[in-house]
Inverse folding.
């Protein structure tokens, strides 16, 4: 079924340029686009050669060349996807778009947020309601609601030497170091001491006690954290409340790597309070 | 001889015809059937509030009891529609108040509802029963008070993810003591604390209360007393689940949960602490719907909960569930029909570290034979995974995959995700809704056009090489009803070549694409049954025809151009000075 807007004769239809694949960079290929969209005087047989200005005008630049604010999108896309830049000339096409258009667009409305780290509007597609809810969850401020302590979550990343990926934990869900370390142990048990295996629920609990000690005080692994000043410290030195406020990241280091930390942690706590 | 069926007989027959699709057919038979049908239609659905005028609807269906309206386009949810675009409920409420006094149910989605609207509803419909507002905005808690005070037979008041100006919790106290008809109350999107004693009294005098969704400010302690007053609840949305309770309070709460024999749906659970998860164990076996998408619990605790939910049909959860957790869902929740996995990272794109990959969804597709609807946010995906999922679940009707990094290829092969989506559209013959993401070339859209014959709604972002792709979609997808596109190099050609297709669809949204101003004008000129709205925050008068526009929203309409357009919405009718006079129209 033909849904085409303008009448182009059968011949034109058969070779309709709209059906030809187009390299977005190839502005010169667009000549034939024009004859089917604008009713100008160019006869169909002339399609190929009628590279008129209108054709190139219709062939626009990229989504991001439309308005200044989109230029910041490059900050997000290009550094992360350098390969795509070469394979899919979507991004570099910016350079080929007509200077006039870009000049016009650059002039008007230059008050868009020039975020150093570009944020694409509405991406990922999460409803504002959800974003706002999660944002208030993860904000570091304590939201006083009628005198009750803050209810928000406090996510920190937990990495472990040798583990293929990080985890995230919400520090507010724990009440003390013991709690935190047993939770971490559960989470990372698949990486530590694989030979212990799973001996069923009870066995596991017993195992976890053993591993707990190993993790915190013993030979194998040591739990460290990065505080708000960027220093790496041993977990357990400061009171729990202060820890939750200053901890930015957690790391389960191999015991041997953490030796140098102990003295500085002690020193640091001298400067605190 | 009068061969016509007496209208009373016809009326009686029509009273058995519920589906509006059938009723629409009935109304086409002849004038008398049209008349009888329109006078007996009880529920009216207007899925684009600008497709018809409120007066026309009110005039045609004077006896209608229920009106459902949708306003802004779907992408408004993601802030792509500027504020003030439209979608006002007022003209509808005014028209209904004047012509349809029997109206007792109003369901609005993505519309602007003011306090005046709510007051008008309260004043105009004497037996008003149901108000459901989804993703609406523009009103305050004062408007809610107006509804509460006046609607003495109110059955349902539901505010789903609305943006409400919260002036305090007093509105709840306006429900009169004589109101005993409440069946459903959802104020989960409000911030302010309501008076607990008023809430308790309301709940105790509502024996028919089946659904109660509290806001975050309702404490865990308060929840306990409310549950004791309403053990018959079928749907419960808790408040915040993180207060510290003493042992006695905990056991009381546990007892309250175990008394809830009818509970089928559970949501809320904001900030739930792991130690409170066991409180929910007693209701798990009965649950068919569980919304954990605001619960910041880790996988091990989620697993404990989900292994007990053998009857679960709908699960909303965050990616904290990880692949392991989804494996457990696959083995425990055999009745699962709908799965939604939301990202937990505040910035989404940054956090590539949660251990949830495409494997999680593959597991669920293997283990859950009734799985038909999927929304999955993840950092990366593979073609092989989609092929497996399609093979496992040809019964999928809704597949929305959001690979959060734009232009992400298959992370194992570095290929575009074309083949994966091909498998989905090829195998899932009843697929009605599809959202694509990741690196996609022309081919993906060729496949979608070729195979997506039942596809009604399609969402595309950051995809494509050329205009050809839009052409594949518009010419191939026969059932296409809603198409929304952002940041793709789709331009004029395909749009103009498939212009008549647009009259068979509800709407087309394109933003940050390459549609020129000239094409919009032309389309507008040639297709009078479409409203072609150019939504652009920069002035258009001095623009050359070739310049691209920021957004276009095209929808079919019987109402003609709307009268409430803000200055950043341009149409040739509203702005004739930007007309097409210099183009020779054949």
């Amino acid at each position: 079924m033909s849904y085409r807007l303008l009448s182009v004769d059968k011949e034109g239809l058969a070779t309709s340029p709209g059906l030809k694949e187009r390299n977005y960079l190839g502005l010169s290929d667009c000549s034939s686009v024009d004859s089917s969209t604008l009713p100008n005087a160019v006869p169909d047989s002339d399609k190929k050669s009628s590279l008129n200005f209108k054709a190139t005008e219709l062939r626009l630049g990229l989504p991001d060349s439309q308005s200044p604010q989109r230029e910041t999108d490059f900050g997000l896309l290009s550094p992360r996807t350098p390969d795509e830049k070469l394979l899919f000339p979507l991004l570099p096409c910016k350079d080929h778009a007509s200077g006039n258009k870009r000049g016009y667009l650059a002039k008007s409305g230059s008050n868009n947020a020039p975020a150093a780290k570009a944020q694409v509007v509405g991406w990922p597609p999460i409803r504002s309601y959800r974003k706002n809810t999660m944002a208030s969850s993860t904000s570091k401020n304590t939201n006083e609601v009628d005198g009750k302590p803050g209810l928000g979550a406090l996510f920190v990343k937990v990495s472990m030497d040798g583990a293929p990926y990080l985890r995230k934990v919400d520090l507010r869900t724990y009440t003390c170091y013991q709690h935190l370390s047993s939770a971490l142990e559960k989470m990372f048990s698949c990486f530590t001491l694989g030979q212990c295996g799973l001996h069923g629920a009870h066995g596991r609990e017993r195992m976890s006690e053993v591993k707990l000690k190993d993790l915190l005080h013993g030979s194998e692994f040591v739990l460290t954290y990065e505080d708000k000043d960027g220093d790496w410290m041993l977990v357990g030195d400061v009171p729990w409340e202060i820890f939750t406020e200053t901890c930015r990241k957690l790391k389960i280091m191999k015991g041997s790597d953490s030796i140098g930390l102990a003295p500085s942690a002690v020193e640091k706590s001298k400067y605190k309070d | 001889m009068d061969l016509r069926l007496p209208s009373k007989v016809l009326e009686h027959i029509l009273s058995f015809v519920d589906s509006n699709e059938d009723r629409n057919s009935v109304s086409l038979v002849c004038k008398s059937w049209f008349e009888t049908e329109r006078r007996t239609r009880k529920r009216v659905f207007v899925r684009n509030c600008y497709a018809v005028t409120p007066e026309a609807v009110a005039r045609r269906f004077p006896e209608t009891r229920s009106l459902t309206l949708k306003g802004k386009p779907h992408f408004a949810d993601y802030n792509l529609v500027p504020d003030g675009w439209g979608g006002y409920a007022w003209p509808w409420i005014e028209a209904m108040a004047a012509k349809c006094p029997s109206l007792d149910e109003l369901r609005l989605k993505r519309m602007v509802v003011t306090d005046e609207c709510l007051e008008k509803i309260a004043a105009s419909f004497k037996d008003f029963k149901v108000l459901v507002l989804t993703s609406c905005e523009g009103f305050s808690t004062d408007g809610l008070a107006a509804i509460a005070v006046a609607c003495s037979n109110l059955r349902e008041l539901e505010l789903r993810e609305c943006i409400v100006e919260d002036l305090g919790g007093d509105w709840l106290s306006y429900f009169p003591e004589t109101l005993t008809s409440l069946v459903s109350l959802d104020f989960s999107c409000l911030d302010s604390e309501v008076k607990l004693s008023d809430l308790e009294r309301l709940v105790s005098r509502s024996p028919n209360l089946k659904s109660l969704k509290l806001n975050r400010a309702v404490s865990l302690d308060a929840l306990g007393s409310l549950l004791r007053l309403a053990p018959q609840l079928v749907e419960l949305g808790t408040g915040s689940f993180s207060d510290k309770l003493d042992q006695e309070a905990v056991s009381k709460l546990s007892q309250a949960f175990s008394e809830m024999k009818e509970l089928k749906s559970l949501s809320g659970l904001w900030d739930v602490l792991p130690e409170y998860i066991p409180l929910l164990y007693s209701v798990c076996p009965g649950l068919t719907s569980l919304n954990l998408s605001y619960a910041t619990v880790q996988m091990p605790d989620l697993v404990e909960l989900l292994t007990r939910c053998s009857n679960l049909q709908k699960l909303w959860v965050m990616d904290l569930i990880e692949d392991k957790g989804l494996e457990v869902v696959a083995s425990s929740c055999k009745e699962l029909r709908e799965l939604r996995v939301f990202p937990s990272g505040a910035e989404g794109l940054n956090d590539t570290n949660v251990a949830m990959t495409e494997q999680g969804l593959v597991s669920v597709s293997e283990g859950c034979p009734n799985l038909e609807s999927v929304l999955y946010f993840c950092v990366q995906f593979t073609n092989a995974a989609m092929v497996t999922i399609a093979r496992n679940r040809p019964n999928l009707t809704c597949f929305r995959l959001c690979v959060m990094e734009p232009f992400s290829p298959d992370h194992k092969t570095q290929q575009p995700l074309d083949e994966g989506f091909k498998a989905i559209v090829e195998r899932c013959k009843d697929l009605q809704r599809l959202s694509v993401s990741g690196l996609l070339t022309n081919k993906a859209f060729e496949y979608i056009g070729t195979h997506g014959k039942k596809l009604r709604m399609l969402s595309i972002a950051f995809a494509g090489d050329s205009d050809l792709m839009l052409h594949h979609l518009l010419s191939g997808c026969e059932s296409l009803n809603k198409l929304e596109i952002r940041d793709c190099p789709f331009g004029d050609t395909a749009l103009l070549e498939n212009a008549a297709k647009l009259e068979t669809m509800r709407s087309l949204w394109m933003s940050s694409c390459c549609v020129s101003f000239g094409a919009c004008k032309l389309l507008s000129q040639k297709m009078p049954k479409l409203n072609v709205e150019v939504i652009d925050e920069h002035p258009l008068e001095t623009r050359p025809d070739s310049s691209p526009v920021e957004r276009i929203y095209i929808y079919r309409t019987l109402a003609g151009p709307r009268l409430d357009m803000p200055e950043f919405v341009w149409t040739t009718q509203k702005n004739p000075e930007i007309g097409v006079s210099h183009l020779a129209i054949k």
Summary: Chain A has a mean pLDDT of 53. Chain A touches chain B through 82 residues (CB under 8 Å). Residues 32 and 47 of chain A are 5 Å apart (CA to CA).
